[in-house]
Design goal:
The chain has 3 helices and 6 strands, in the order βαββββαβα. The protein has 178 residues and is of the alpha+beta class. It comes from Halobacterium litoreum.
Length: 178
């Protein structure tokens, strides 16, 4: 598949801030995971994404591997525990381009993987947002906020078709695998 070479991936299990997006405003004033804390949660993320099929189809790999892709040092996930509620984790996704057509489906898939399998981590809720640099960040983040609110209120994962946001593009609509 296009661009899927394992040669571009840095070794797993290391915290290298040079290969991670800078924590943006969505993580400001919160406890950003770094070092072993980031590595441990990201290792679990890779397992959950593998189990739930959260894959970047452009690069042909588990989305968690984007954090290790040396070709895209400013892309991937960063995490922070909410300052006033450490039982909530914020996950900020920075795509490789500001027009990434998969950003909606990848963030919804990430949200569903983390929250459907929450017994495997220490957070009762993982809130997901796409970086403000994405051209559709407002619409995507509104849909993700609605998913998070529905999940927090009911404890049930909403139907992905209720996520709003994207109506065209890879992974959108009833055929989405998440």
């Amino acid at each position: 598949m296009f661009g899927s070479s394992d040669d571009a991936l840095a070794p797993a299990g290391e915290f290298d801030p040079d290969l991670l997006p800078t924590p943006g405003p969505r993580l400001a004033d919160h406890d950003v995971l770094a070092g072993d804390d980031h590595v441990a949660f990201h290792r679990l993320t890779r397992e959950l994404f593998e189990e739930r099929g959260v894959y970047d189809v452009t690069f042909g790999y588990n989305l968690a591997d984007l954090n290790r892709d040396t070709r895209h040092a400013d892309a991937g996930y960063r995490y922070a525990e909410e300052a006033d509620d450490p039982g909530v984790l914020r996950a900020a996704f920075t795509p490789t381009t500001p027009f990434c057509p998969q950003s909606h489906s990848l963030t919804v898939g990430s949200f569903r993987a983390w929250n459907a399998l929450r017994e495997r981590h220490d957070y009762r809720l993982v809130r997901v947002r796409v970086a403000e640099t994405h051209q559709r960040s407002d619409a995507i983040n509104d849909a993700l906020r609605d998913l998070g609110e529905a999940f927090a209120a009911t404890g049930e994962l909403p139907d992905p078709d209720d996520a709003g946001g994207e109506t065209t593009g890879a992974g959108a609509g009833a055929g989405a695998p998440f």
